[in-house]
Amino acid sequence: MTSSVVDAQAVDLGVVRQQVDAVLEDFLAEKDRAAAVRGHPPEVVRTVRDFLAAGGKRIRALLCVVGWHAAGGRGDPASAVRVAASLELFVAFALIHDDIMDDSVSRRGRPAVHRVMRARLGEGVRAERLGAGGALLVGNLALMWAQELLHTARLEPGRERSVHGLYDAMLEEVMYGQYLDVMGTGRGADDIEAALRIVRYKTATATIERPLELGAAVAGAGEAVMDAFSRLGLPLGEAFQLRDDLLDVFGSPDGSGAPGLGDLREGKRTVLLALGLRSADPRRRERLGHLVGRADLGECGAAEIRDILRATGAREETERMITDRYTHVLRVLDEAGFPPAADRALRGLAAKATRYTC
Fold it and tell me: Is residue 5 part of a domain?
């Protein structure tokens, strides 16, 4: 693979994150000032700012800037950083809407946005409906602002079409993935390929593949770089989501993250659940059907589900799928010949994405 030489010093991901956060803060501060001048409700910008500040490891933004380095980006990465920052506003939109559709209680250790808005309006069905509507509009604004920020990236001539085309494709893929997730496509909960299809559209491309490609496109990457990112992006994105599914149900092995009830109460059609249902005997299958998707599921029922997922080998098989995909990513990196600094950063992010949520 031919690319410009990038020095062998490490890509400082901490600095990259600070740069992305600074762009977001400046952008939202301007939105705050504009809202005050125009008499817009001040809590809208504050809600988006609080959501971004609540957590998340900025993995999409980091991958975007690392993609720029991998494609031989040199000099000031300001354009790549602004594209990366726009991705974080896009993520805010996607997660706020996802929480509305799932009626999630919390996100990143805080009440979900629609729950916060519902609480401002009191109790009852009307407050619930209006709170969801308010959060929907906040999410829409986050998406509009993501695209507005993208347009401020000051891309080099001739690169706008590629960058905007990739961004538009990412938006479309996520919408289709969310649609498949919500509507279920009429397939059974034990359909592993259907569950993987949702992962690919809803998470894998937008979390890994497109951010890498966007950063590379900002740098004017050639076909070889884009091909490498395509070959590693999808399996790494799938591994990322498979790990997220495991962590939600079982927690982290070191005890730093407690298991949750969210996915189980919502009855999410995950690969983990599909594997369990596919391998379960009739009695265990019946128990999974009875317990998963119950809004009143408690810890006792969740523990029974976990036992079944272990006994059927679903947990072990999910771990194997993660390992296989991670190994494939490393093979692609071995062949790609990216500049040393970018290569090290990509390997570190790949390890992190397959072990923890972001």
Answer: no
Tokens representing 310 are 């272990």
- The rounded radius of gyration (Å) of the Cα atoms in the chain is 21
Q: Flag whether pLDDT at 171 surpasses 90.
A: yes
Q: Which residue has the higher pLDDT, 91 or 126?
A: 91
CA–CA dist 242, 327 (Å, integer): 15
The boundaries of the domain holding residue 269 are 13-353
- Domains contained in the chain, number: 1
Contact partners, residue 51, CB within 8 Å, separation at least 6? 92, 95, 96, 107, 113, 142
Structure tokens belonging to residue 244? 């997220």
CA distance 232 to 137: 35
pLDDT tens digits along 261-275: 777 888 888 999 999
The residue ranges of DSSP E strands in the chain, in sequence order, are: 106-107, 110-111
Per-residue pLDDT at 3: 38
Asked if 81 contacts 16 with a C-beta cutoff of 8 angstroms, the reply is: yes
CA distances from 259 to 52, 64, 253 (A): 23, 30, 10
Residue with tokens 């397939």: 187
Residue 100 lies in a domain: yes
Spatial separation of the C-alpha atoms in residues 157 and 154, rounded to whole Å:
9
Confidence of residue 257 (pLDDT cuts 50, 70, 90): low
CA distance 333 to 264: 35
